[in-house]
Design brief:
Helix content is 76%, strand content 1%. It is mainly α. The protein has a two-stranded antiparallel sheet.
Length: 431
């Protein structure tokens, strides 16, 4: 007799909670945390994916001039290629270092504190990259690239955690979209500022890197006035009063007892679980398919070749036969396509599902990469072949952003150079 009544009461409570959640508006505090948190994190990551394209020729000329001044001989072609490749790819090495070290910062400083500290890396990188030419030091550019890579690795690990913990369940997907959309806007902004009419000139290319400090400073001006993650305050700091105030500000209501109880329940559940080693994790058959799914998805995400498109877009288009004066504007269209694809994917992901988008995205990328290879090989024999190469580049970007990019950003955060997992197996503790 008691059980059905309790069940009915729970059902009524659940229904009322759902209706209350649906009516709960998006507060200014929550929107500010999502926007400015992503502006100083995801936006910078996207900006650094595209910012090296426009000034590539000027940076190479600077390397050659500096080398000649130092050693009295022109920079050898193979050394120039090596230095440029290091400048481009060391960003990913920095991302790996940042992703591997982020857990230390998060535990000591919290989610918001880590994001605030991370701005110091952005400002330092902006100084190194923008002052490298004045100091006649190409090493400063290389060091600056690895420092901003560390910034991106930390940001793409800490930001999704912060956004996920401060947003109510019914709009968590919407808040999570700030991460992926701001990445696309960062890419597009880097392409716009790299236009010849703006900063894509030989006398101004260093200002492209000075811009890195602007989003970081904006985040430093806003984020200190916003609360820390309530879950971090309650579960890590045991500060229930602080967690209650944080929930009240983010959710815009006084009664947050339900949210506090959810965090308490999560803490109790974690206390009853036993953290296992990596070796135990690999041996456990209960999570084999989860591990296989994560490893394959992230391996394909990292090795799909999209970074080659972003870092070498101008070179690919130049090899495809496009005129030099048209390259900045053609490249600009790739950022627009990426942003549009990310928005469209965000609108349909809940209806279509993650798995179909992943399959469609990776399959389409494989097809268009194959076609791009064929078109580039035959571009000298057919006059209109470069246009097909250009279409393939746009198709690859759209396929990635509509599938793998969007799904991984929402489901598997922290993808810049590394993967952070905290998996607990339901093992009983010894009595």
């Amino acid at each position: 007799m008691d059980a059905p009544e309790d069940s009915q009461a729970d059902h009524k409570m659940s229904s009322s909670e759902k209706s209350a959640g649906k009516q709960q508006p998006l507060t200014a505090c929550l929107f500010s945390a999502a926007f400015f948190g992503a502006l100083g994190s995801s936006f910078l990551y996207g900006y650094n994916l595209s910012v090296v394209n426009a000034p590539a020729l000027y940076i190479k000329a600077f390397y050659n001039k500096t080398w000649t001044e130092r050693y009295g001989v022109p920079l050898p072609a193979e050394t120039a290629t090596l230095l440029w490749s290091i400048t481009v790819s060391i960003f990913a090495i920095g991302g790996l270092l940042g992703a591997l070290s982020v857990s230390l910062f998060i535990k000591a400083l919290g989610r918001k504190g880590t994001l605030l500290l991370n701005n110091s890396f952005a400002v330092t990188a902006a100084l190194l990259l923008s002052l490298g030419e004045m100091s006649r030091s190409f090493e400063m550019l290389i060091i600056g690239r690895i420092v901003i890579g560390v910034n991106s690795g930390i940001a793409l690990s800490a930001l999704p955690m912060y956004l996920g913990e401060i947003s109510p369940r019914h709009i968590r997907g919407f808040i999570g979209q700030f991460n992926s959309i701001l990445i696309c806007l960062g890419v597009f902004t880097g392409q716009v500022l790299g236009l010849p009419q703006l900063l894509g000139q030989e006398s101004r290319w260093n200002y492209l890197f000075s811009f890195l400090a602007f989003p970081a400073v904006l985040q430093l001006c806003v984020l200190p006035f916003l609360p820390e993650s309530p879950r971090y305050l309650l579960m890590e700091k045991k500060d229930e009063a602080g967690a209650e105030k944080a929930f009240q500000r983010f959710l815009g209501k006084k009664d947050v007892s339900q949210e506090l109880e959810e965090v308490h329940a999560e803490a109790r559940a974690q206390d009853n679980l036993h953290a296992v080693s990596v070796l135990q994790l690999l041996r456990s058959p209960a999570v084999h398919w989860q591990l296989i799914t994560i490893i394959i998805t992230m391996a394909c995400y990292q090795l799909c070749g999209l970074n080659a498109i972003w870092y070498y877009t101008n070179g690919i288009l130049r090899a495809a036969g496009f005129a030099e004066n048209l390259l900045p504007y053609v490249t600009l269209s790739t950022g627009a396509v990426e942003t549009l694809a990310a928005i469209v994917s965000g609108l349909v992901i809940e209806r279509v599902g993650r798995r179909p988008l992943l399959i469609f995205g990776f399959s389409s990328m494989a097809v268009f990469f194959s076609l791009l290879t064929v078109f580039l090989n035959f571009q000298d024999s057919v006059s209109w072949m470069p246009y097909l190469s250009y279409v393939c580049i746009l198709a690859v970007i759209a396929a990635f952003c509509s599938g793998p990019g969007e799904v991984a950003d929402l489901c598997l955060p922290g993808v810049c150079g590394g993967l952070h997992l905290r998996i607990h197996l339901p093992l009983r503790r010894p009595p």
